[in-house]
Amino acid sequence: MEQPLTSPFPAGAELVTNDLDAARSFYHDLLGWTYTDTADGFTASADGLPAAELRSGPAPARWWTVFGTAGAAAVRAAAGQAGARLTADEVHDPLGGSFRLRTGVRATVPGPGRPCWYEYMTNDPARADRFHSDALDLRATTPPGASDDSYALLSAGGTRPLAGRLAMPAPLQTLLPAGWMVYLAVADPDDIAERAQRQGGRLLVPPRDVVTGRVCALADPAGAVFTVIRPAPAGG
Fold first, then answer.
1. Of 4, 10, 12, 51, which is least packed with CB atoms within 10 Å of its CB?
2. Can you give the pTM of this predicted structure?
């Protein structure tokens, strides 16, 4: 039986951008997001459920993965000992990736237009796996049947996989930033790719089929990078 999760876990996503109005319009048209005001931006919702937080901040725009935890001080201490740089609620790891650390947050419910997966993209998988083990108690395991360790699943104890880790092949290293990637669930990645470009976004990785589903990587008009995915059927 799966044990209650006590380790840090990917809980959601935040977009920080210097043009909130443009971001609201882009993601509303692309994903159907609706918005409610917050103290420093907006909460985006899809099908009535929270999808992401949008906050104003300096360029370049970027998507952040948010980790939830009941013990932020202990996680910050472990991350610092593992070589991370800490600023406010941000953890900047020694490989060039970053995430936000929050207490008292609930995980975003996966579904259309909402984050459904989080993946760490890296050129140094062994070092990344050590950092995530030491700082977040996330252990990397190779999926059954994999031919190598270029892709790993990150889990805490006996829990289901919480995230992935990808050793980026050479072509992707020039297209995608290292660090945490947010995956948003959609019904038709090909349609999303076409419409994102018409709305001023950029197609970074064209739609393609992978083990986990059909994916493509995009940048919004301000340059924030994200991936959309039509998840593969369970057991498929």
1. 4
2. 0.94
